[in-house]
Amino acid sequence: MRCLPSFLLCTLLLVAPHCAEVAAQEVQPDPKIPCANWMGGAPGYPGHNGLPGRDGKDGQDGLKGEKGEKGVQGPKGDQGEVGIPGQDGPRGFPGQPGQKGESVFIYRSAFSVGLTERAPPPNVPIRFSKIFYNEQSHYDTSTGKFLCNIPGTYYFAYHLTVYLMDVKVSLYKKDKAVIFTYDQFQNNNVDQASGSVLLHLSSGDEVWLQVYGEEGKNGVYADNINDSTFMGFLLYPDLDVH
């Protein structure tokens, strides 16, 4: 029995230090949390936003998408400025000959004649017998008259040499004087008289030139160096006839 008290004493001596260490561990505060055993502190303020990060690298191209539907046509734009003319292209090959068409000069009528006799008689057509041009033979040298074969508008003109006496001439159409020309002769001088007119003629109309009035007004003259001429030609035919 004397050993039992000794065993208990030894047990207490061994247990006491261990309990003191456990109590010390339970009471020792956390050095990272001051006043942890007293009370909790107030929440802190939120921190500032951090700086944006750097842009990442571009990714790889994706697969080509499907073709979209056609959009609505937009409004017409303004007309652009005229461009610089381009260079001339190479010369082409000659074309095939075309068919022969109707000539634009198919309706022809013209004459140009001159006087060969001196002092023609008055009040009758002057017969110009020197032929410069009369291809269609519309001027008759035997009568001194132009005969219209193609209805249309004609131009007539005359240029007369005046010598020895005064001259008064008239251009006639269908027995009616149309225009008059008078020139007074000057002694020891050779003069000229002229006139021109546009006339519309029908088929069968006649035009001529003659000395008008009395015997003393027929100083129309011509020789080998002086001419007196009469001429006329068709300007254009009547379209409703041809």
From TrEMBL:
<dbReference type="Pfam" id="PF00386">
    <property type="entry name" value="C1q"/>
</dbReference>
<feature type="compositionally biased region" description="Basic and acidic residues">
    <location>
        <begin position="54"/>
        <end position="70"/>
    </location>
</feature>
<dbReference type="InterPro" id="IPR001073">
    <property type="entry name" value="C1q_dom"/>
</dbReference>
<dbReference type="InterPro" id="IPR050392">
    <property type="entry name" value="Collagen/C1q_domain"/>
</dbReference>
<keyword id="KW-0732">Signal</keyword>
<protein>
    <submittedName>
        <fullName>ADIPO protein</fullName>
    </submittedName>
</protein>
<feature type="domain" description="C1q">
    <location>
        <begin position="104"/>
        <end position="241"/>
    </location>
</feature>
<keyword id="KW-0379">Hydroxylation</keyword>
<dbReference type="InterPro" id="IPR008983">
    <property type="entry name" value="Tumour_necrosis_fac-like_dom"/>
</dbReference>
<dbReference type="GO" id="GO:0005581">
    <property type="term" value="C:collagen trimer"/>
</dbReference>
<keyword id="KW-0964">Secreted</keyword>
<dbReference type="Pfam" id="PF01391">
    <property type="entry name" value="Collagen"/>
</dbReference>
<keyword id="KW-0176">Collagen</keyword>
<dbReference type="InterPro" id="IPR008160">
    <property type="entry name" value="Collagen"/>
</dbReference>
<dbReference type="GO" id="GO:0005576">
    <property type="term" value="C:extracellular region"/>
</dbReference>
<feature type="signal peptide">
    <location>
        <begin position="1"/>
        <end position="24"/>
    </location>
</feature>
<feature type="region of interest" description="Disordered">
    <location>
        <begin position="46"/>
        <end position="99"/>
    </location>
</feature>
